Amino acid sequence: MVKLDASEACARSQKPARAGGATRIFGGRGMDRRRKLLSGNRQRWRSRRRTEARWLLPLAAGAVVAGIAGRRLAGSWVRDGLQQALRTFMLRLQSDPYRENLWELISAARRPGPQIILENGLRAEYGALLHRPLGSPRRWPNLESLVFDGAQIARRPAAHDAPVDLSVTIGPRAKKPLQVDIPILVSGMAYGLALSQRAKVALARGAALAGTASNSGEGPLTPLERQAAAKVIVQYARATWGTDPHALRHASMVEIHFGQGASTGVGGEVVGARSDRRLRLELGVPPSRPAVIGSHHAALAAGSLKELVDELRVETGGVPIGVKLAPGRRLEADLEACLEAGVDVVALDGAQAATKGSPPILQDDFGLPTLHALVRAAAFLESRGARDQVSLIVSGGLYTPGDFLKVLALGADAVYIGTVALFVIAHGQVFKSLPWEPPTQLVFFGGHQEHRLDVDEAAHRLANYLRAVSWEMAVAVRALGKTSVRDVGKEDLMALDDLTARICGVPVSYRAGGAVAAREGG
């Protein structure tokens, strides 16, 4: 910036005066002396700038060169250091005796696996009951060995733009059956016991946008969730709050909860209610008492399941009354009791199902795989002539449109999704918790980031997912030569191995004469 001396500043601040048509600033010999002074100042300033430029430019260029050279030199040092460290590590790894070799850890860990080592470490650290979130990592028998038989010449596919009916009626013999646009329902995940209120509202609103129903879970049905849900399935829990008449009157279906895949029928205390006053109010539990879910329904101590079903049917005005079971070896006996009680719906939660947290032994070592439970339940209902009267909903380890359609082909009327729905509503928001916390902290009750979940975005994501899955299933139905999801059956499936073929009663893929070969193999 050029600095002005006092004379030039004064001259520039004055307004010119007109005299005889000419413009003059001050005037006389004094003005000439000022001009000479200003001219000398300008010359000295230009000379100084030229001198500075002579050494500033080389200095800047030198700094750039030094920076590049320094970076390369530093990079060379880092590379040399890493290379030397890696060389030393590999020499030690390949020459140390096994008893001192780090590879011993890897070799030993491959037997139990990192999951078991981690969980045993947590047991050793805290000396308390371990609660693992989101189900068993065990590899259970699943649907991967089943594939569909696409139509081509012997059976033609439907037109690419043929409308496909995906709608389902749950509890068809009920006075007020539950009708949904798609055969995918949002499973029971309770407010306070598992999820935050934001997550529950997002699930209910997303399900409503997609034309389906959501389940309240074992917790209370809050006013916000009730307002967000177009159709809500209310769980009749094994606790005092599960029998709320006000919640039951808003139900599109009631589900009597007996058990679930990840925790069987075990009860327990709602730990979050110890410190959360709002949750205690929603549960209706006084401060002096713990909030406990029992292992049995109190109503069944004095009466039968049939009496409870009839009572709920009257109280709700005729909506479907169902039961939720964790299937086991006595599955048929449980189903027989359900039929005698006159239930409208049976929901089976297979061993692959998840929960917010339960002991690993219940997740890994109890119950039937979803596939086995499904084929047994469908066969039993068929043998009792109840297949068209009692709806069958299945959940546990179902993640893709292919999984959903295969389950429907094997005899289910609809599927529940849980874990998938949680990851879907967190989509686009996971970095509010990552990398320091898992994404579940956005949706779990008491999660560190539960207040940061954007409910509108989460609901939009779930609705998008359900629509996309439904369209994908519609494409598959057309590829089978059909136009209704209810027409998809076992005749559309084949198995890639003999065991799956025998379990499911479908042809095995490597033999001609499909159904006959499968029967002979059985």
Offer a concise description of the structure:
It is built from 18 helices and 16 strands. It has 522 residues and is an alpha/beta fold.
CATH superfamily of the domain at 146-488: Aldolase class I
Helix content: 40-55%
The largest pleated sheet is described as: 8 strands, parallel
The end-to-end distance, rounded to whole angstroms, is 96 Å
User: Unreliable segments (pLDDT under 50, ≥5 consecutive)?
Assistant: 1-29, 515-522
Radius of gyration of CA atoms, rounded to a whole number: 37 Å
Write the layout of secondary structure elements.
Blueprint lengths: L5 H8 L3 E3 L2 E3 L4 H67 L7 H7 L4 H13 L19 E3 L19 E3 L7 E3 L3 E3 L10 H13 L4 E2 L7 H6 L3 E5 L8 H5 L3 E5 L10 E2 L7 H7 L8 E2 L5 H4 L2 H11 L5 E5 L5 H11 L3 E5 L10 H5 L5 H14 L7 E5 L5 H9 L4 E4 L1 H7 L29 H25 L13 E3 L2 H7 L9 H8 L1
Parallel strand pairs: 6-15, 7-8, 8-9, 9-12, 12-13, 13-14, 14-15
Antiparallel strand pairs: 1-2, 3-16, 4-5, 10-11
Helix pairs in contact: 5-16, 10-11, 14-16
